[in-house]
Design brief:
This protein has 9 helices and 9 strands. By secondary structure, it is α/β, with parallel strands linked by helices.
Length: about 290
């Protein structure tokens, strides 16, 4: 199996279990300073014994988008199945499984305003899978258990709303707001705000930055009026392994700011004011004071 170190724990822990329990050889492709996988590295690593390649579409911390279409093409040329975790990307950017060329694609409901507890897996016709949960013949024998019909309907409704929003310029609106927030932070903290991830190939509503001299966790503690994080909820209390894989220097505590369907320009300006005021206070307060 081939993956990369900035994947979500849902993938990384599955890889670890396959390695430790079943002896599967797992190869981790490196990522550059911008968080992207180089397709040439996949081409060099893949071989006749490679059964599966799994690379996420969009990173959950930085929003970085991977070149999925190019990676999937390499995998399929070598007879390997290609899976992409599109939990963060679905509903935020256009996704077309035919254009991407993937065999498997994961969608998670609560990331696109559906209730928690529902997800979907796209399976390309002809791709053979074994059931994880044995029992009845639900879901074509792939996952036993009575289906949560209400949740499935909610996922479908959320997908329809997301598709309409994508067609109505939703990504462009979020991108403009994200850049407005970034610009406000840079203007108030000149030379201190550093973007984590690719400047162009990233989700329109995700801004992950490091502010030199300011600890991200301390900044959030000082701004209770802003709902943000220093990384993924799945890595709470630990240094970000995503940024660790991207950077060669000492670990940093970043600031992850995410925008959504209901974010307004007023929200952006209020958040920027609160964050920069708190950051300036922290910068001028002696350590230990």
């Amino acid at each position: 199996m081939i993956t990369q170190p900035t994947e979500h724990p849902a993938i990384l822990e599955a890889c670890r279990a396959l390695r430790d329990r079943h002896g599967v050889r797992v190869t981790y492709l490196p990522v550059g300073g911008d968080g992207r996988v180089d397709p040439a590295d996949l081409a060099a690593a893949i071989g006749p014994r490679t059964a599966l390649v799994s690379i996420m579409a969009a990173n959950n911390e930085t929003g970085v988008l991977q070149p999925i279409d190019r990676l999937a093409r390499i995998a399929r040329e070598h007879g390997a199945v290609f899976h992409t975790d599109a939990a963060q990307a679905a509903g935020k950017i256009p996704l077309d499984v035919t254009e991407l060329g993937v065999d498997l694609l994961t969608v998670v409901g609560h990331k696109m305003y559906a209730p928690k507890g529902i997800a979907a897996l796209y399976v390309r016709s002809g791709t053979r899978l074994e059931p994880v949960i044995l029992g009845g013949g639900q879901v074509r024998g792939l996952r036993a258990g009575t289906e949560p019909v209400a949740l499935a309907v909610a996922l479908g409704a959320a997908a329809e709303l997301a598709r309409a929003e994508l067609a109505d310029g939703g990504p462009d609106r979020l991108r403009a707001l994200r850049d407005r927030l970034h610009r406000r932070l840079e203007e108030a903290l000149p030379g201190r705000v550093h973007l984590n991830g690719h400047a162009e190939h990233r989700l329109p509503g995700t801004l992950n930055v490091t502010i030199t001299g300011v600890d991200g966790a301390a900044l959030l503690d000082a701004t209770p009026g802003v709902a943000a994080s220093t990384g993924s909820a799945c890595h709470t209390g630990t240094a970000s392994p995503v940024l660790a894989a991207m950077q060669s220097g000492p670990p940093v505590t970043p600031l992850r700011l995410t925008l959504g369907r209901h974010t307004t320009p007023t929200d952006i300006d209020q958040a920027a004011t609160l964050l920069t005021t708190a950051a300036q206070t922290l910068l001028t307060t002696p350590q230990g004071a």
